[in-house]
Design a protein that fits this description.
534 residues, alpha/beta, six-stranded mixed beta sheet, six-stranded antiparallel beta sheet, 21% helix
Protein backbone atom coordinates (compact mmCIF):
# COMPACT_ATOMS: atom_id res chain seq x y z
CA UNK A 1 0.00 0.00 0.00
CA UNK A 2 1.38 3.40 -0.98
CA UNK A 3 0.06 6.78 0.12
CA UNK A 4 0.81 10.46 -0.06
CA UNK A 5 -0.72 13.32 1.93
CA UNK A 6 -1.54 16.39 -0.13
CA UNK A 7 -0.19 18.86 2.40
CA UNK A 8 -1.48 21.77 0.34
CA UNK A 9 -4.94 20.65 1.52
CA UNK A 10 -4.16 19.25 4.98
CA UNK A 11 -5.28 21.60 7.75
CA UNK A 12 -3.88 19.77 10.76
CA UNK A 13 -7.12 18.29 12.15
CA UNK A 14 -5.07 15.21 13.14
CA UNK A 15 -7.84 12.65 12.65
CA UNK A 16 -5.32 10.47 10.81
CA UNK A 17 -2.85 10.64 13.71
CA UNK A 18 -5.55 9.42 16.11
CA UNK A 19 -6.76 6.60 13.88
CA UNK A 20 -3.40 5.35 12.55
CA UNK A 21 -0.74 6.69 14.94
CA UNK A 22 2.01 4.39 13.66
CA UNK A 23 1.56 5.79 10.12
CA UNK A 24 0.71 9.46 10.74
CA UNK A 25 2.39 11.58 13.41
CA UNK A 26 2.15 15.23 14.40
CA UNK A 27 5.68 16.54 14.72
CA UNK A 28 6.69 18.78 17.59
CA UNK A 29 3.86 20.51 19.45
CA UNK A 30 2.15 21.98 16.37
CA UNK A 31 0.58 20.98 13.07
CA UNK A 32 3.60 19.53 11.25
CA UNK A 33 2.39 16.18 9.88
CA UNK A 34 4.81 13.42 8.96
CA UNK A 35 3.74 10.04 7.58
CA UNK A 36 4.98 6.68 6.33
CA UNK A 37 4.38 6.67 2.55
CA UNK A 38 4.62 2.85 2.39
CA UNK A 39 2.85 1.39 5.47
CA UNK A 40 2.66 -2.34 6.09
CA UNK A 41 -0.37 -4.42 5.13
CA UNK A 42 -1.18 -4.78 8.84
CA UNK A 43 -1.95 -1.04 8.90
CA UNK A 44 -4.30 -1.14 5.91
CA UNK A 45 -7.59 -1.01 7.81
CA UNK A 46 -6.38 1.82 10.05
CA UNK A 47 -5.16 3.79 7.04
CA UNK A 48 -8.48 3.31 5.23
CA UNK A 49 -10.37 4.60 8.28
CA UNK A 50 -8.01 7.57 8.55
CA UNK A 51 -8.51 8.35 4.87
CA UNK A 52 -12.31 8.27 5.23
CA UNK A 53 -12.17 10.46 8.35
CA UNK A 54 -9.94 13.19 6.87
CA UNK A 55 -12.19 16.32 6.77
CA UNK A 56 -10.41 17.72 3.71
CA UNK A 57 -9.71 14.38 1.95
CA UNK A 58 -5.98 15.06 1.74
CA UNK A 59 -4.82 11.41 1.82
CA UNK A 60 -4.29 9.78 -1.59
CA UNK A 61 -3.98 5.97 -1.72
CA UNK A 62 -3.31 3.28 -4.25
CA UNK A 63 -6.71 2.13 -5.40
CA UNK A 64 -5.56 -0.82 -7.47
CA UNK A 65 -6.43 -1.54 -11.13
CA UNK A 66 -9.50 0.21 -12.47
CA UNK A 67 -11.01 0.83 -15.84
CA UNK A 68 -9.52 3.81 -17.61
CA UNK A 69 -12.10 6.41 -18.46
CA UNK A 70 -15.63 5.07 -18.14
CA UNK A 71 -18.77 7.05 -17.40
CA UNK A 72 -16.93 9.88 -15.68
CA UNK A 73 -14.72 10.38 -18.73
CA UNK A 74 -17.61 10.10 -21.16
CA UNK A 75 -19.39 12.91 -19.36
CA UNK A 76 -16.33 15.17 -19.83
CA UNK A 77 -15.76 14.66 -23.56
CA UNK A 78 -17.38 17.84 -24.85
CA UNK A 79 -14.95 19.47 -27.26
CA UNK A 80 -12.80 16.35 -27.67
CA UNK A 81 -11.97 14.61 -30.94
CA UNK A 82 -13.24 11.04 -30.58
CA UNK A 83 -10.86 9.73 -33.21
CA UNK A 84 -7.86 11.31 -31.50
CA UNK A 85 -8.97 9.82 -28.17
CA UNK A 86 -8.73 6.38 -29.80
CA UNK A 87 -5.78 6.72 -32.18
CA UNK A 88 -3.70 9.71 -31.07
CA UNK A 89 -0.08 9.49 -29.89
CA UNK A 90 0.87 11.37 -26.71
CA UNK A 91 4.39 11.46 -25.27
CA UNK A 92 5.22 12.74 -21.78
CA UNK A 93 8.90 13.55 -21.14
CA UNK A 94 9.46 13.43 -17.39
CA UNK A 95 8.30 10.55 -15.17
CA UNK A 96 7.86 13.06 -12.37
CA UNK A 97 4.94 14.01 -10.13
CA UNK A 98 3.60 16.23 -12.93
CA UNK A 99 4.23 13.62 -15.62
CA UNK A 100 2.56 10.84 -13.64
CA UNK A 101 -0.47 12.97 -12.73
CA UNK A 102 -0.85 14.00 -16.36
CA UNK A 103 -0.69 10.38 -17.54
CA UNK A 104 -3.41 9.39 -15.07
CA UNK A 105 -5.55 12.38 -16.03
CA UNK A 106 -5.28 11.56 -19.75
CA UNK A 107 -6.60 8.05 -19.19
CA UNK A 108 -9.31 9.34 -16.85
CA UNK A 109 -10.43 11.83 -19.48
CA UNK A 110 -10.98 8.93 -21.88
CA UNK A 111 -7.77 8.89 -23.92
CA UNK A 112 -7.19 5.28 -25.06
CA UNK A 113 -4.55 5.95 -27.73
CA UNK A 114 -0.78 5.50 -27.51
CA UNK A 115 0.74 6.95 -24.33
CA UNK A 116 4.52 6.94 -23.72
CA UNK A 117 6.17 8.23 -20.53
CA UNK A 118 9.93 8.87 -20.69
CA UNK A 119 12.06 9.28 -17.56
CA UNK A 120 15.82 9.50 -17.08
CA UNK A 121 15.71 7.79 -13.66
CA UNK A 122 15.29 3.99 -13.57
CA UNK A 123 12.72 4.00 -10.76
CA UNK A 124 8.95 4.16 -10.87
CA UNK A 125 7.81 7.74 -10.13
CA UNK A 126 8.30 8.76 -6.50
CA UNK A 127 7.46 11.60 -4.13
CA UNK A 128 10.28 14.03 -3.35
CA UNK A 129 9.17 15.90 -0.17
CA UNK A 130 9.80 12.91 2.15
CA UNK A 131 13.41 12.71 0.95
CA UNK A 132 14.44 15.72 3.05
CA UNK A 133 12.26 14.82 6.04
CA UNK A 134 11.13 11.27 6.85
CA UNK A 135 13.98 9.61 4.93
CA UNK A 136 16.73 11.66 6.61
CA UNK A 137 15.24 10.94 10.03
CA UNK A 138 15.68 7.23 9.27
CA UNK A 139 11.98 6.45 9.61
CA UNK A 140 11.31 5.69 5.94
CA UNK A 141 13.67 4.08 3.38
CA UNK A 142 14.18 6.19 0.28
CA UNK A 143 12.93 3.27 -1.81
CA UNK A 144 9.53 3.45 -0.08
CA UNK A 145 8.54 6.88 -1.42
CA UNK A 146 6.82 5.72 -4.62
CA UNK A 147 3.81 7.74 -5.72
CA UNK A 148 0.44 6.02 -5.28
CA UNK A 149 -1.47 5.47 -8.49
CA UNK A 150 -5.18 6.09 -8.30
CA UNK A 151 -5.69 3.62 -11.13
CA UNK A 152 -3.60 1.45 -13.38
CA UNK A 153 -1.97 3.72 -15.97
CA UNK A 154 -1.72 1.86 -19.25
CA UNK A 155 1.40 3.40 -20.81
CA UNK A 156 4.73 2.52 -22.39
CA UNK A 157 7.05 3.48 -19.53
CA UNK A 158 10.53 4.25 -20.88
CA UNK A 159 12.40 4.56 -17.58
CA UNK A 160 16.15 4.96 -17.22
CA UNK A 161 16.57 6.58 -20.62
CA UNK A 162 16.88 10.36 -21.04
CA UNK A 163 15.45 12.52 -23.80
CA UNK A 164 18.31 14.14 -25.71
CA UNK A 165 16.55 16.18 -28.38
CA UNK A 166 13.29 17.35 -29.90
CA UNK A 167 12.42 17.56 -33.59
CA UNK A 168 9.34 19.78 -33.68
CA UNK A 169 8.84 19.60 -37.44
CA UNK A 170 9.11 15.81 -37.51
CA UNK A 171 7.31 15.41 -34.15
CA UNK A 172 9.99 13.14 -32.73
CA UNK A 173 11.61 12.92 -29.30
CA UNK A 174 15.18 11.64 -29.53
CA UNK A 175 16.41 9.37 -26.71
CA UNK A 176 19.83 8.61 -25.24
CA UNK A 177 19.65 4.99 -26.44
CA UNK A 178 19.60 6.17 -30.07
CA UNK A 179 15.89 5.60 -30.63
CA UNK A 180 13.14 8.14 -31.30
CA UNK A 181 9.49 8.28 -30.27
CA UNK A 182 6.90 9.97 -32.48
CA UNK A 183 4.05 12.04 -31.11
CA UNK A 184 0.96 13.98 -32.03
CA UNK A 185 0.97 15.83 -28.67
CA UNK A 186 3.90 16.28 -26.31
CA UNK A 187 4.01 17.21 -22.62
CA UNK A 188 7.30 18.49 -21.20
CA UNK A 189 7.57 17.75 -17.47
CA UNK A 190 11.32 17.37 -16.98
CA UNK A 191 11.44 19.49 -13.82
CA UNK A 192 14.68 20.61 -12.17
CA UNK A 193 17.85 19.03 -10.83
CA UNK A 194 19.90 20.12 -7.83
CA UNK A 195 22.47 22.85 -8.38
CA UNK A 196 25.84 21.32 -7.46
CA UNK A 197 28.55 22.96 -5.39
CA UNK A 198 30.22 25.46 -7.69
CA UNK A 199 33.78 24.03 -7.61
CA UNK A 200 33.74 20.60 -9.32
CA UNK A 201 36.85 19.27 -7.55
CA UNK A 202 35.37 20.21 -4.17
CA UNK A 203 31.93 18.87 -5.12
CA UNK A 204 33.56 15.50 -5.83
CA UNK A 205 34.89 15.11 -2.26
CA UNK A 206 33.44 12.23 -0.28
CA UNK A 207 31.05 13.90 2.16
CA UNK A 208 29.72 16.66 -0.15
CA UNK A 209 26.07 16.17 -1.11
CA UNK A 210 23.10 17.63 -2.91
CA UNK A 211 19.55 16.48 -2.18
CA UNK A 212 17.12 15.93 -5.02
CA UNK A 213 16.93 12.29 -6.10
CA UNK A 214 16.27 9.03 -4.29
CA UNK A 215 19.97 8.16 -4.58
CA UNK A 216 20.95 11.53 -3.10
CA UNK A 217 18.64 10.88 -0.14
CA UNK A 218 19.98 7.37 0.46
CA UNK A 219 23.62 8.53 0.46
CA UNK A 220 22.96 11.47 2.78
CA UNK A 221 20.88 9.39 5.18
CA UNK A 222 23.70 6.86 5.53
CA UNK A 223 26.13 9.65 6.37
CA UNK A 224 23.82 11.20 8.98
CA UNK A 225 23.18 7.79 10.52
CA UNK A 226 26.96 7.49 10.98
CA UNK A 227 26.78 10.49 13.34
CA UNK A 228 29.29 12.91 11.77
CA UNK A 229 31.02 15.39 14.06
CA UNK A 230 29.50 18.40 12.29
CA UNK A 231 27.26 18.96 9.28
CA UNK A 232 27.53 22.09 7.13
CA UNK A 233 24.44 23.17 5.19
CA UNK A 234 25.17 25.67 2.42
CA UNK A 235 22.03 27.72 1.82
CA UNK A 236 19.03 28.31 4.08
CA UNK A 237 16.16 27.94 1.65
CA UNK A 238 13.50 25.32 2.30
CA UNK A 239 15.65 22.27 1.53
CA UNK A 240 18.61 23.57 3.53
CA UNK A 241 16.42 24.52 6.48
CA UNK A 242 14.71 21.12 6.46
CA UNK A 243 18.08 19.33 6.47
CA UNK A 244 19.24 21.51 9.37
CA UNK A 245 16.03 20.65 11.22
CA UNK A 246 16.62 16.92 10.79
CA UNK A 247 20.20 17.29 12.01
CA UNK A 248 19.03 18.87 15.24
CA UNK A 249 16.37 16.18 15.71
CA UNK A 250 19.18 13.63 15.38
CA UNK A 251 21.21 15.71 17.88
CA UNK A 252 23.90 16.38 15.29
CA UNK A 253 25.90 19.66 15.39
CA UNK A 254 25.00 21.66 12.30
CA UNK A 255 26.16 24.97 10.84
CA UNK A 256 24.07 26.77 8.22
CA UNK A 257 25.84 29.27 5.98
CA UNK A 258 23.40 31.62 4.25
CA UNK A 259 24.55 34.37 1.90
CA UNK A 260 21.38 36.39 2.52
CA UNK A 261 20.32 38.26 5.64
CA UNK A 262 18.07 35.46 6.98
CA UNK A 263 16.80 31.95 6.23
CA UNK A 264 13.95 31.69 3.72
CA UNK A 265 14.33 35.39 2.91
CA UNK A 266 13.90 34.90 -0.84
CA UNK A 267 10.58 33.10 -0.29
CA UNK A 268 9.16 34.83 2.82
CA UNK A 269 10.95 38.20 3.04
CA UNK A 270 13.04 39.83 5.75
CA UNK A 271 10.65 40.13 8.72
CA UNK A 272 9.37 36.53 8.51
CA UNK A 273 12.88 35.33 7.66
CA UNK A 274 14.06 36.86 10.93
CA UNK A 275 11.48 34.75 12.79
CA UNK A 276 12.80 31.68 10.98
CA UNK A 277 16.33 32.65 12.05
CA UNK A 278 15.31 32.80 15.71
CA UNK A 279 13.58 29.44 15.29
CA UNK A 280 16.79 27.85 13.99
CA UNK A 281 19.04 29.35 16.65
CA UNK A 282 16.64 28.33 19.43
CA UNK A 283 16.88 24.77 18.10
CA UNK A 284 20.65 24.84 18.42
CA UNK A 285 21.63 25.57 14.82
CA UNK A 286 24.86 27.51 14.34
CA UNK A 287 23.29 29.91 11.82
CA UNK A 288 25.65 32.26 9.96
CA UNK A 289 23.79 34.83 7.82
CA UNK A 290 25.47 37.10 5.25
CA UNK A 291 28.22 34.47 5.16
CA UNK A 292 29.46 32.44 2.19
CA UNK A 293 31.47 29.25 1.99
CA UNK A 294 34.71 30.17 0.21
CA UNK A 295 36.26 26.69 0.04
CA UNK A 296 35.68 23.05 0.92
CA UNK A 297 38.89 21.21 1.74
CA UNK A 298 39.60 17.52 1.94
CA UNK A 299 42.25 14.96 2.75
CA UNK A 300 42.65 11.77 0.70
CA UNK A 301 39.48 12.60 -1.18
CA UNK A 302 37.41 13.04 2.00
CA UNK A 303 35.84 16.33 3.18
CA UNK A 304 37.56 17.64 6.30
CA UNK A 305 36.96 21.38 6.64
CA UNK A 306 35.23 24.44 5.21
CA UNK A 307 36.43 28.02 5.04
CA UNK A 308 33.85 30.79 5.41
CA UNK A 309 33.81 34.41 4.32
CA UNK A 310 33.68 35.56 7.98
CA UNK A 311 37.25 34.28 8.32
CA UNK A 312 36.38 31.16 10.28
CA UNK A 313 37.30 27.56 9.50
CA UNK A 314 35.00 24.67 10.39
CA UNK A 315 35.95 21.03 10.84
CA UNK A 316 33.12 19.24 9.00
CA UNK A 317 32.53 15.71 7.75
CA UNK A 318 29.35 16.35 5.76
CA UNK A 319 28.36 19.35 3.63
CA UNK A 320 24.99 19.66 1.91
CA UNK A 321 24.82 22.15 -0.97
CA UNK A 322 21.23 23.45 -0.90
CA UNK A 323 21.63 26.05 -3.63
CA UNK A 324 18.36 25.68 -5.54
CA UNK A 325 17.70 23.97 -8.83
CA UNK A 326 18.60 24.02 -12.50
CA UNK A 327 15.76 23.48 -14.95
CA UNK A 328 16.24 20.51 -17.24
CA UNK A 329 16.04 22.20 -20.64
CA UNK A 330 19.35 21.29 -22.28
CA UNK A 331 17.70 18.58 -24.37
CA UNK A 332 15.47 21.26 -25.94
CA UNK A 333 18.37 23.33 -27.30
CA UNK A 334 17.89 23.89 -31.02
CA UNK A 335 14.28 22.69 -30.92
CA UNK A 336 12.82 26.13 -31.61
CA UNK A 337 10.91 26.30 -28.32
CA UNK A 338 11.19 29.24 -25.93
CA UNK A 339 13.25 27.23 -23.46
CA UNK A 340 16.13 28.53 -21.38
CA UNK A 341 17.35 28.79 -17.81
CA UNK A 342 13.96 30.24 -16.87
CA UNK A 343 12.25 27.01 -18.00
CA UNK A 344 9.78 26.53 -20.85
CA UNK A 345 7.55 29.55 -21.48
CA UNK A 346 3.88 28.67 -21.94
CA UNK A 347 0.43 30.22 -21.80
CA UNK A 348 -2.12 29.80 -19.02
CA UNK A 349 -3.39 26.69 -20.81
CA UNK A 350 0.10 25.11 -20.60
CA UNK A 351 0.76 25.40 -24.36
CA UNK A 352 4.45 26.07 -24.96
CA UNK A 353 5.69 29.14 -26.83
CA UNK A 354 8.18 28.84 -29.64
CA UNK A 355 11.22 31.10 -29.90
CA UNK A 356 9.15 33.70 -31.77
CA UNK A 357 6.68 33.97 -28.90
CA UNK A 358 3.99 32.13 -30.88
CA UNK A 359 1.94 29.57 -28.99
CA UNK A 360 2.17 25.96 -30.14
CA UNK A 361 -0.89 23.71 -30.38
CA UNK A 362 0.77 20.33 -29.86
CA UNK A 363 3.48 20.96 -27.23
CA UNK A 364 2.60 21.56 -23.57
CA UNK A 365 4.56 22.08 -20.34
CA UNK A 366 3.73 21.41 -16.69
CA UNK A 367 5.37 21.36 -13.29
CA UNK A 368 8.65 22.93 -12.19
CA UNK A 369 9.78 23.41 -15.81
CA UNK A 370 6.79 25.54 -16.88
CA UNK A 371 6.95 29.34 -16.78
CA UNK A 372 3.38 30.49 -17.19
CA UNK A 373 1.49 33.79 -16.79
CA UNK A 374 -0.24 34.32 -13.46
CA UNK A 375 -3.40 36.41 -14.09
CA UNK A 376 -3.80 37.20 -10.38
CA UNK A 377 -0.32 38.72 -10.32
CA UNK A 378 -0.28 41.03 -13.31
CA UNK A 379 0.18 38.21 -15.82
CA UNK A 380 3.77 37.81 -14.75
CA UNK A 381 5.45 34.72 -16.18
CA UNK A 382 6.37 32.67 -13.12
CA UNK A 383 7.86 29.20 -12.69
CA UNK A 384 6.63 27.66 -9.43
CA UNK A 385 8.56 24.74 -7.96
CA UNK A 386 5.77 23.54 -5.69
CA UNK A 387 4.11 20.14 -5.23
CA UNK A 388 0.57 21.44 -5.53
CA UNK A 389 1.34 23.48 -8.64
CA UNK A 390 2.76 20.38 -10.37
CA UNK A 391 -0.43 18.44 -9.65
CA UNK A 392 -2.95 21.06 -10.77
CA UNK A 393 -0.95 22.20 -13.78
CA UNK A 394 -0.52 18.61 -14.98
CA UNK A 395 -4.27 18.01 -14.85
CA UNK A 396 -4.97 21.21 -16.78
CA UNK A 397 -2.35 20.31 -19.38
CA UNK A 398 -3.78 16.80 -19.80
CA UNK A 399 -7.30 18.15 -20.34
CA UNK A 400 -6.15 20.75 -22.83
CA UNK A 401 -4.14 18.22 -24.83
CA UNK A 402 -7.43 16.48 -25.60
CA UNK A 403 -9.71 19.52 -26.03
CA UNK A 404 -10.46 22.02 -28.75
CA UNK A 405 -9.87 25.76 -28.32
CA UNK A 406 -13.28 26.56 -26.81
CA UNK A 407 -13.15 23.82 -24.16
CA UNK A 408 -9.62 24.33 -22.81
CA UNK A 409 -9.09 25.22 -19.17
CA UNK A 410 -6.87 28.02 -17.84
CA UNK A 411 -4.52 27.21 -14.98
CA UNK A 412 -5.76 29.72 -12.43
CA UNK A 413 -4.98 27.99 -9.13
CA UNK A 414 -3.48 30.20 -6.43
CA UNK A 415 -0.02 28.75 -5.61
CA UNK A 416 0.31 26.92 -2.29
CA UNK A 417 3.45 25.44 -0.77
CA UNK A 418 4.51 24.04 2.57
CA UNK A 419 7.55 23.09 4.61
CA UNK A 420 7.94 21.16 7.85
CA UNK A 421 10.92 22.22 9.96
CA UNK A 422 11.79 22.52 13.65
CA UNK A 423 8.36 21.18 14.61
CA UNK A 424 6.58 23.97 12.69
CA UNK A 425 4.33 23.62 9.66
CA UNK A 426 4.99 26.61 7.39
CA UNK A 427 2.46 27.14 4.62
CA UNK A 428 2.06 29.83 2.00
CA UNK A 429 -0.73 30.77 -0.38
CA UNK A 430 -0.28 33.26 -3.21
CA UNK A 431 3.11 34.64 -4.26
CA UNK A 432 4.77 36.37 -1.29
CA UNK A 433 7.88 37.36 -3.25
CA UNK A 434 5.99 39.93 -5.35
CA UNK A 435 4.86 41.84 -2.22
CA UNK A 436 6.23 45.11 -0.93
CA UNK A 437 4.65 45.02 2.57
CA UNK A 438 3.77 42.44 5.23
CA UNK A 439 1.76 42.44 8.45
CA UNK A 440 1.00 39.80 11.08
CA UNK A 441 -2.80 39.63 11.14
CA UNK A 442 -3.38 36.77 13.60
CA UNK A 443 -1.51 35.01 16.36
CA UNK A 444 1.91 35.73 17.78
CA UNK A 445 5.35 35.69 16.19
CA UNK A 446 6.83 35.04 19.63
CA UNK A 447 4.80 31.84 19.92
CA UNK A 448 5.55 30.99 16.25
CA UNK A 449 1.88 30.48 15.65
CA UNK A 450 0.63 33.24 13.38
CA UNK A 451 -0.64 34.40 9.99
CA UNK A 452 1.29 36.99 7.98
CA UNK A 453 -0.49 38.79 5.12
CA UNK A 454 1.48 40.21 2.18
CA UNK A 455 0.43 43.18 0.06
CA UNK A 456 1.43 44.87 -3.15
CA UNK A 457 0.28 48.44 -3.84
CA UNK A 458 -2.81 48.10 -1.65
CA UNK A 459 -3.84 44.59 -2.68
CA UNK A 460 -3.51 41.27 -0.81
CA UNK A 461 -1.23 38.94 -2.81
CA UNK A 462 -0.17 36.23 -0.32
CA UNK A 463 -0.39 34.84 3.20
CA UNK A 464 2.04 32.71 5.19
CA UNK A 465 1.07 30.65 8.23
CA UNK A 466 3.17 29.15 10.99
CA UNK A 467 1.10 26.35 12.60
CA UNK A 468 -2.11 28.10 11.54
CA UNK A 469 -2.95 26.20 8.37
CA UNK A 470 -6.70 26.13 9.04
CA UNK A 471 -6.76 29.79 7.98
CA UNK A 472 -5.12 29.20 4.63
CA UNK A 473 -8.37 28.64 2.73
CA UNK A 474 -9.83 31.91 4.03
CA UNK A 475 -6.84 33.91 2.84
CA UNK A 476 -6.83 32.10 -0.49
CA UNK A 477 -10.39 33.24 -1.14
CA UNK A 478 -9.45 36.82 -0.22
CA UNK A 479 -6.52 36.74 -2.67
CA UNK A 480 -8.80 35.41 -5.41
CA UNK A 481 -11.22 38.29 -4.74
CA UNK A 482 -8.46 40.91 -4.88
CA UNK A 483 -9.02 41.94 -1.27
CA UNK A 484 -7.47 45.21 -0.06
CA UNK A 485 -4.23 45.42 1.90
CA UNK A 486 -3.82 45.98 4.80
CA UNK A 487 -6.74 43.61 5.54
CA UNK A 488 -9.81 45.39 6.84
CA UNK A 489 -11.65 42.35 8.21
CA UNK A 490 -11.88 41.28 11.85
CA UNK A 491 -10.87 37.75 12.79
CA UNK A 492 -10.06 35.87 15.96
CA UNK A 493 -6.68 36.18 17.66
CA UNK A 494 -5.77 39.53 16.14
CA UNK A 495 -2.75 41.35 17.63
CA UNK A 496 -3.55 44.53 19.53
CA UNK A 497 -1.46 46.45 17.03
CA UNK A 498 -0.98 45.38 13.43
CA UNK A 499 2.26 46.96 12.23
CA UNK A 500 2.62 47.03 8.44
CA UNK A 501 6.33 46.81 7.58
CA UNK A 502 8.37 46.51 4.37
CA UNK A 503 8.49 42.92 3.10
CA UNK A 504 12.25 43.20 2.44
CA UNK A 505 12.67 40.68 -0.35
CA UNK A 506 16.16 40.66 -1.82
CA UNK A 507 16.52 42.26 -5.21
CA UNK A 508 16.82 39.44 -7.71
CA UNK A 509 17.80 39.74 -11.38
CA UNK A 510 14.96 38.82 -13.71
CA UNK A 511 16.31 36.06 -15.98
CA UNK A 512 14.69 37.60 -19.06
CA UNK A 513 15.85 41.19 -18.58
CA UNK A 514 18.68 40.80 -21.08
CA UNK A 515 18.19 39.81 -24.71
CA UNK A 516 17.48 36.11 -25.15
CA UNK A 517 17.09 35.99 -28.95
CA UNK A 518 18.63 37.28 -32.14
CA UNK A 519 16.18 38.75 -34.67
CA UNK A 520 16.61 38.16 -38.41
CA UNK A 521 14.71 39.14 -41.56
CA UNK A 522 13.19 42.43 -42.66
CA UNK A 523 9.55 41.83 -43.55
CA UNK A 524 6.81 39.89 -41.76
CA UNK A 525 7.32 36.83 -43.96
CA UNK A 526 11.01 36.61 -43.02
CA UNK A 527 11.08 38.12 -39.54
CA UNK A 528 12.17 35.39 -37.08
CA UNK A 529 13.73 35.02 -33.65
CA UNK A 530 16.51 32.58 -32.85
CA UNK A 531 17.36 31.74 -29.25
CA UNK A 532 20.88 32.64 -28.15
CA UNK A 533 22.83 29.81 -26.55
CA UNK A 534 24.27 30.70 -23.12
Amino acid sequence: MRLVVDLTRCQGYAQCAFLAPSVFTLHGDGEALLYDPDPSDEQRERVLRATAACPVQAIVLDRGPAENGGRAAAARRDGMNEEFLRTGRIVIVGASLAGTRAAGALRYEGFTGSLTVIGDEPHDPYDRPPLSKQVQQGGVPAGHTGLPRRRAIDADWRLGVAATGLDLAGKQVRLADGTSVGFDRLLIATGVRARPWLVPAEAALDGVFVLRTREDAERLQRQLAGRPGRVLVIGAGFTGSEVASVCRELDLPVTVAEAGPAPLVAALGGPIGAIAADMQRDAGVDLRCAVRVTALEGENGRLRRARLSDGSTLEVEVAVAALGGIRNVEWLEGSGLAAGRWGVACDAGCRAFDANGLVTDDVFAAGDIARAPQPLFGYQLLALEHWGNAVTQAEVAAHNMLSDETHRWPHLDVPIFWSTQFGIEIKSVGVPSVADQVVITQGSATDRRFVAAYGLRGRLVAAVTFNQSKWLGFYQRQIERSAPFPPAWHTVDQPAEQAVVPAEFPTQPIPTQSATVVLTGHDPAERRATLRSP
